[in-house]
Amino acid sequence: MLLDKSMLEQHNEELLSEHKRKLKVVAEGIPNVDSLYKKLAAFQVAIPSWALGTGGTRFGRFPSGGEPRSLEEKIEDVGLLHSLNKSSGAISLHIPWDIPEDAAAIRSLGAQYGLNFDAMNSNTFQDQPGQELSYKFGSLQHVDKSVRRQAIEHNLEVINYGLELGSTSLTVWLADGSCFPGQLNFREAFERTLGSLKEIYDRLPADWKMFVEYKAFEPNFYSMTVGDWGQSLLFSQKLGAKAKVLVDLGHHLPNANIEQIVSLLLMEGKLGGFHFNDSKYGDDDLTVGSINPYQLFLIFHELVEGMDAKGMNHANDLGWMIDASHNVKDPLEDLIQSVEAILISYAQALLVDTKN
Known about the structure:
- By secondary structure, this protein is of the alpha/beta class.
- Helix content is 43%, strand content 11%.
- The protein has ten helices and eleven strands.
- It has a six-stranded parallel β-sheet with strand order 4-5-7-9-10-11. A three-stranded parallel β-sheet has the order 1-2-3, covered by helices on one side.
- α9 links the parallel β10 (271-276) and β11 (319-322).
- The longest helix is centred in the N-terminal third of the chain and has 23 residues, at 5-27.
- The protein starts with a helix and ends in a 5-residue tail after the last helix.
């Protein structure tokens, strides 16, 4: 839905005087505060299309009213969110969950709400209706070449959808791995996966990036073929300059030093972007900043310091996206809170004086 701008302006006008008074107090003594404002205004967090409905767990799903029934309605929801915070100017699609049947119309609708199309996400961790071959035992790592070919072709199809929408990146997260010792030859699985990724990488448009996302465990629990940042980095280095590591905050073992991982990936020029969420135990996909806001600040501190050291543009040189599942909470409420938490941590990191 399109909000009436006059309603927003009237609401903001009633609060503006008090806001300016408080801001003046806070801003006193902050050097180059106008530069900080500009950086915050430019910072946009992409909203994932799959986060606009009720999530669920392996135990069940509890749907709520008002969930979007189509890609068009999901774009409208992100448009509403962006009109409220001016910091959610992009949507990230998951294929085949959100196939743009009429790409030109979908792109036009996004533009109507001031939205760009962020990274495209492929899905080879589920079998889809009518799918010829199963991914039960892996996709890009599979021992059967025909299964690997099917997964490769799916990723190429996702790239084509992205081209029609104006996207410039592909995120590949693989559920591939094993549940028991002896089920998989680790080295051969890595080599098969690398070969599959290379075929996809070689078909990337010149201005595109490939984000290789890792996860420590789940759905496989003995091994994951892209199980940590080292494996993701290894794939990215072997693929080439357009391949980067994507860090999902919930895809680590408990108490992992994510800020150090971020720092080293930035140092190597191989950090591609983020999936923001929060967690207590694993891939909990909770509201950003709801569990460990201090860790989020520490991560942003390393991001700001590392990006400034390399002369990078904070807003555009990395991919920023939320990846969450809303099991008992209204998705729009959660997303508003998550974007706010991200911007607060970013602002705090910008305020740190590393020179003195």
